[in-house]
Amino acid sequence: MSGIHLGLSFPEAICRVLEAIANPSSDDPIHECDPFLKKNILQNPGLVLQRAETHMRSVYPYKDVKMCWRRLFTDASIVDAVFSIITNCHLSEFEPWARRYHDRLSLLTSEIKERQETHGDWFNFEPDRAPDDWIVKGVIHTLDYALIMTGIPGRKREVHGLFDQLQRAIEKGEAVAKAEERFDPTIQPNLELPMFSQASVNRPEVKNPVLRVRNPSLDWLVNHLTNVRTPFVIEGECEHWPARSGENSWASSKFWWNHTLKGHRLVPVELGKSYTAEGWGQQITEFGKFAKWYLWDQVPTPSDRSPITDPNDYSPSLFGWEKRTWWEPDLDKAGVAYLAQHDLLTQIPALRKDICIPDMCHAPTLGPEPGTPVYEKAKRDRAEEQARQRAGAEAEAGPAEELAAEPNPAELTTEATEEPDYDSDFTPGNPSEPIINTWIGPEWTVTPLHHDPYHNAFCQVVGSKYVRLYSPHSPADKIHPRGLELFEELLDEDPERTPRWIDMSNTSLVNIEDIETSPAEAEEWENLWPGFQDLEYLDTVLEEGDCLYIPIGWWHYVRALRAGVSVSFWWNKEPWKEYSDGEYGQGQSSE
After folding, report:
1. I want to staple 116 with a disulfide (CB 3.0 to 4.6 A). Which of 11, 289, 306, 467 is the partner?
2. Superkingdom of the source (predicted)?
């Protein structure tokens, strides 16, 4: 077994990781990579990382990057992080990437083990004191970046094991520093502050309320999901979650401090109110900086700089104390940032035990209704894919081989769908483990009107949100879907770069935020988006503990009223039942 665990000492864990990387299994996709690069993983991991990332970024969509390149980037990242630990903790007399260790890794691991036997269980980290600390930049950031970029295929045990070891070593180092009275209180956060600002925006009037129930039976859920098929809210569905109270409360800054290695774990955030807003962008940043700068808006401005120059003068801050004379502007700050649709529970597995999969995810469900955008898009995608497969089979077999019959577009599977807003690796969920995403942000974050190819149980853990929903049968000339749009990332740096187009047809052109916050401008909105204001809709305010069911294909718009955390569960238990429409039948469905 190649994984590492807390029963090992940190030096032993390091050796176990290096041995696993040096001896990949015979069926490991990494063997498909350039032998030169594979050979250099343990010799020059920096070079391998550069080459692998260049290749991954050249492929579009990102989900089409071959697994061998993800594996190569993952292993090189782990080696780079481990070499940083070996070098800075003086676990070896020589530089670990010296050529002599490439084919003779046993020399390095033997030396590490000998030093441990000589010095005993001495290994620990001092509390970090500087933003460029090697633990942060060389280890935590390196491992997290690999996790975000690749999903660390084949190395989850090693990477999560290293993070567990880091957590234990940092806590041990801090305890030693306190005992020896070397602990600097000025680097500690004000953990008495709640994780989220208590500021809120005005609660909108709910005009067409979504059905609300409490403690529904399984029979009720099955009937509603298969026959009624409209949104509903289960009040208090999440109240029993550990994330809602106690020491595991996700409203606690202390909880997040402890689970993000003092805020140094990296997370991807979206900059701007929504992904359709002008100036919107994406950035990978430290969780602690995201919390300070955006959840509490604690970025100092030039006018905030204090004339006080006393080096001992500090101001309290969430996730760390800061000198009043410091000023660290964020040039990418766009006023609002959102950790949106991120698989945080896979990145930090300890969070998984704090939530529960809602019962509705285990109930029978149907696929999208014929005639809806999700159904029609999947039908087109499936037909195109099968046409490509037939063309390939014809070219390989020659004209003498009989081709398969035309496919029935009704016989679709969820494999034909993907989330068009993101370059993701998502595969359809199943009832035992749906696709789980986390959403963390301040008030005023907006998810524009869009639809998804999954059923969605959207749970509000902390804070509150306003949600508006429209039928999947809303006419296109009134819902105003977008189309193909140019994806201009990196075009400025490389004008010769092949233009990239992204299918935004699951997102509406309509800006509901303008409509709901400026109703007096109704005539202007009608001119911009004819007929939209005539559409019927449902709306609700999700409070802490509530869970909203959004049926597959329903258009929905979400605006945060108070900073907080949401968790969404996407699933398809029995997707794409034998629907038929148009020339294929009468448009009926069956369980």
Report:
1. 11
2. Eukaryota
Q: Is the bond preceding 61 in cis, omega lying within 30 degrees of 0?
A: yes
Distance CA 148, CA 556 (A): 27
Give the phi and the psi of residue 487 in degrees, each rounded to 5.
-100, 105
554: Cα within 13 Å, side-chain hemisphere:
24
Q: Which residues contact 187 (CB under 8 A, 6 or more apart)?
A: 127, 128, 129, 320, 321
Q: Tokens 């300070």 belong to which residue?
A: 292
Residues above pLDDT 90, as percent of the chain: 50
CA triple 181-183-186, angle to 5 deg: 135
The kind and range of the H/E element at 393 are helix 373-397
Neighbours of 89 (CB within 10 A): 20
Distance in angstroms (rounded) separating the CA atoms of residues 279 and 281: 6
Report the C-alpha gap between 516 and 414 in whole angstroms.
Answer: 34
Tokens matching residue 435: 């696709």
Residue numbers of the chain with a pLDDT score lower than 70: 1-7, 94-104, 118-132, 181-188, 297-334, 396-432, 487-499, 573-591
Among 39, 27, 40, which residue's Cα sits nearest to residue 153? 27
Residue-level pLDDT at 151 = 94
| Beta-bridge partner residues of 539 | 209, 468
Q: How far apart are CA 251 and CA 243, in angstroms?
A: 8
Cα maximum dimension of the chain: 87
Q: In the chain, which segments carry CATH 2.60.120.650?
A: 207-318+326-369+420-573
HEC per residue, 304-327: HCCCCCCCCCEECCCCCCEECCCC
Beta strand residue intervals within 191-317, DSSP E: 211-213, 232-234, 266-271, 281-286, 314-315
The phi-psi region of residue 432 (left if phi > 0; otherwise alpha if psi is between -120 and 50; otherwise beta) is alpha
Superfamily of domain 207-318+326-369+420-573: Cupin (2.60.120.650)
CA 138 to chain centre: 22
Residue 76: HSE in the Cβ half-sphere, 13 Å Cα cutoff: 26
Closest to 571 (Cα-Cα) out of 362, 430, 363: 430
